Amino acid sequence: MKKPDLKSLDLAALWRGLTQPDGAGTDRVVPPTGFTAQLTLFSAAAMAFLAVFALALALATGRLAERWSSELAETVTVRLSAPPEQMDEQTVTVMEVLKTSPGVANARLLPDAEVEKLLEPWFGPDVPVEALPVPRLIEVTEGAGFDADALRLRLQGEAPGAVLDDHTRWREPLVKAASRLRFLGLVSLLLIAATSAAMITLAAKASLAANGQVIRVLRLIGARDITIATAFVRRFTRRAALGAAAGTVIGMIAIWALPAMDEAGGFLTGLGFQGFGWIWPLLIPPAAAGIGFFSTRWAALRMLREVR
Amino acid sequence: MIEMQNLSFGYSGDEPLLADMSLNLPPGSFHFLTGPSGAGKTTLLRLCYADLLPTAGKMLAFGEDVTGLSRDGIAALRRRVGVVHQDPQFLEHLPVAENVALPLIVSGEQVDMRALGDLLGWVQLTTHSRVMPQALSGGERQRAALARAVIMSPDLVIADEPTGNLDWDMSMRLLQLLIELNRSGKAVLFATHDMNLIRAAKQQVQARVLRIAGKRLQLAGADL
């Protein structure tokens, strides 16, 4: 027996059938099915809601990784610890070394007030910096050709109390963690899309199986595969889009209602969308519609293959 | 129109149910198909609208080899062949009028409400147009199925024992409709066990009687 020819299913015609109004009433050939309709709507809404959070996580961690790597990569710190009587002398030496080192754009000795501010979270507002053995801090802005290793060696030779801290040691794991979180956020989005596709496919298959008799009658009276498939695809695509739109709106409201970002809250309060970032979740309903379209089309094709 | 050349068909592949069959259904012809139960009448009819494909031999429908038809090609063939079954199936969620108009709807053609009304009047179902199929009697279902089968103005109407569950009066009514169709130029292929029905038809129309016996198709004698 000849293998059924499924290449005759014209995608362009399917798209036209989906986007253009159903003037002929072809959709009515498929009976309304309450259970699969509700299942599709609910699962699309739930998945869209989760997708909003996964997207927020991916965007927030992306921002964080970028900020940490760019801000911290631009500056290094020279920490100078020396006996009080040598402190001034070594400070001058370090500043001299920095001035003559290639790739150092700027070197600034942090005044006591700034150091005090840095220590404030740990010691309180009235810390007497001068009474503490606090090292002097010199903020170095990197320029072109900056070589941390060469500078470290020079400082070792000329000012033994000076230590160059280029933040790499503690910055790298943070940036790595943020990047990993962003990756996990994107993986979550993919998993949500795959799960949505699986659920819509199952719902579509249940609907197709329940309507086996309808499909046989339609084939018998000369309905093309495209016509039958479109009736199902149109229905499931709309349900997926509507459910996802509801889930997205609820998810966006939930994100919007999170506390405003502040310094103390750090990462957690920075989980929301920023500026044009609010456009990204609006892509979830069209994506869900696309998933509904292709999942149902695939399921319908397979089902129709079994009916002559 | 429908041409079978040394056609064979078997479901299992080992033993053919129909063997070495040759048949030609010209436009405007009227054929009865008889034979004992299980002889393969329904199978032969299903071959005519490509619900089954021959396992050997050749089968041409409107000049095209059915084994080479795509799925869209099969759909196009079925729009030229109206089929009425003994137990016709409908879309139970749609009223009679929409079920009758279904071939037009799925073909994307405009439904002419006046023509639809005339058609329902022809099968005496005007008052049942908004009734759901499950509320129809056996005879009404057959007439609705006949209306659905002819709404696309097919070249051939196949009736697979449509009177099997009907009383004599209802059977004669259905037969009369098929004779009218034949007089309007449609070819009719009518499978039945009912010899009285065949005799009644032969008084009004030039009908040939085909019989399936011993897996083969024979032209029945004139004694019917």
Keywords:
heterodimer, A: 308 residues, alpha+beta, 2 domains, 4-stranded antiparallel sheet, 9 helices, disordered N terminus, B: 224 residues, alpha/beta, Rossmann fold, 6-stranded mixed sheet, 10 strands, 33% helix, 24% strand
Q: pLDDT average of chain B, as an integer? A: 90
Q: What ranges of chain A have pLDDT less than 50 throughout 5 or more consecutive residues?
A: 1-8
Termini separation of chain B comes to 26 Å
Q: What is the assembly state of the chains in this entry?
A: heterodimer
By CATH, the architecture of the domain at 2-89 and 154-219 in chain B is named: 3-Layer(aba) Sandwich
Q: Mean pLDDT of chain A, nearest integer?
A: 83
- Report, as a whole number of angstroms, the end-to-end distance of chain A: 11 Å
CATH topology of the domain at 2-89 and 154-219 in chain B: Rossmann fold
The pair of chains with the biggest contact is: A-B, 31 and 35 residues
SS summary, helix count of chain A: 9
Beta-strand level of the residues of chain A, as a percent range?
A: 5-15%
The chain-level structural class of chain B is: alpha/beta
Tally the beta strands of chain A. 4
Overall radius of gyration of chain A? 32 Å
CATH superfamily label of the domain at 2-89 and 154-219 in chain B? P-loop containing nucleotide triphosphate hydrolases
Provide the gyration radius of chain B in Å: 17 Å
- Write out the strand line-up for the largest beta sheet of chain A, numbering strands in chain order: 2-3-1-4
Please give the order of strands in the largest beta sheet of chain B.
6-7-8-3-9-10
Beta-strand fraction estimate of chain B? 15-25%
Give the helices and strands of chain B as they follow along the chain.
EEEHEEHEHHHEHEHEE
- Helix count, DSSP H or I runs of 4 or more residues of chain B: 7
Protein name (chain A): Cell division protein FtsX
Pfam families (chain A): FtsX
InterPro entries (chain A): ABC3_permease_C (IPR003838), FtsX (IPR004513)
Keywords (chain A): Cell cycle, Cell division, Cell membrane, Membrane, Transmembrane, Transmembrane helix
